[in-house]
Amino acid sequence: MRVFITGGTGLIGTAVVAELLTAGHSVTVLTRSDASAARARAAGADALPGGLADLAVLRGGAEQADGVIHLAFSNDFSSPEAWARGIAEESAALETLGEALVGTGRPLVTVSGTPAAAGRASTEDDPVPTDGPVGGRGRSVNRTLALAERGVRSSAVRMPRTVHHQGEGGFAGLLTGIARRTGVSGYPGDGAQRWPAVHARDAATLFRLALEEAPAGTAWHAVADEGDAVRDIAAVIGRRLGLPVESVPPESFGALATIFAADQPASSAHTRAALGWKPTHPSLLDDLENIQP
């Protein structure tokens, strides 16, 4: 299969590209810079210059592919306004990719986040939020899944709070960065809130399975660890960096304060049973042992 992928040189995307190539697919990566293009080619993929705002480039890449995986996002959490701009950019990009595939029966796999479910781990049947700080992404994903009614084999891989590799990545990686800057490995509140996690290589396998097999209009959970307490995550970070581990005010985390303070475990039981997905790589707490002081 000829696969067009956005976000193919990031932490998750690099793993997805490697997984696809190993499985015998050919890959074209959307690249925003010469350095990104060089990384894509070094991995064995082709490079298509452009960014998420280059809608004509996106349309052309999708039209020439047998399947599309969308991973790119601005990841600018500096302010609510920056977050909103990133969501708007992604929404327009996804609409363009989807329209290019209407009536073809080809797969479009997009990325989402695992939802919250009060008092329990969320499942693949729970809806993603369509209001609040991440509501815009939820609405965009729902529109993409609705393309199943227009001849697109659309699916969404819902990612947990942390996608990690060698101790880096995701919300745990943000906690590590904040700890380095402030000299404290902090967690919001009592730290009992739970964050699910997955290793990037396990997530990559699920993206490939969704591309190859997922029925139209379906959502899947890339969750290996249902939920580690944030204070346990902070404890490993603090020990590895030689820093004190303390509760800090939620507002210390800026635009992500509400999200960081939320309890949001998630299950992948249906995904494992239906697609045969079996995570095999290290858990988050084990992988955080790779953090360098």
Which helices and strands appear, and what pairs or packs with what?
Blueprint: E1 2-6, H1 11-22, E2 26-31, H2 34-43, E3 46-49, H3 55-63, E4 67-70, H4 80-101, E5 107-113, H5 135-146, E6 153-159, E7 162-164, H6 170-182, E8 185-188, E9 194-199, H7 200-213, E10 218-221, E11 225-229, H8 230-241, E12 245-248, H9 257-260, H10 269-275, H11 284-287
Parallel strand pairs: 1-2, 1-4, 2-3, 4-5, 5-6, 6-10, 7-9, 8-12
Antiparallel strand pairs: 9-11
Helix pairs in contact: 1-7, 3-4, 4-5, 6-8
Describe this structure in words.
Residues 113-139 are annotated as: Disordered. This is Nucleoside-diphosphate-sugar epimerase. It holds the Pfam family Epimerase. Residues 3-216 form the NAD-dependent epimerase/dehydratase domain. GO terms for molecular function: aldehyde dehydrogenase (NAD+) activity. The chain is an alpha/beta fold. The chain has two domains: 2-162 and 198-225, 3-Layer(aba) Sandwich (Rossmann fold); 165-196 and 226-270 and 283-290, UDP-galactose 4-epimerase, domain 1, CATH 3.90.25. Helix content is 41%, strand content 20%. It is built from eleven helices and twelve strands. It has a seven-stranded parallel beta sheet with strand order 3-2-1-4-5-6-10, with helices on both faces. A three-stranded mixed beta sheet has the order 7-9-11. The longest helix is centred in the first third of the chain and has 22 residues, at 80-101. It is globular and about 55 Å long. The relative contact order is 0.14.
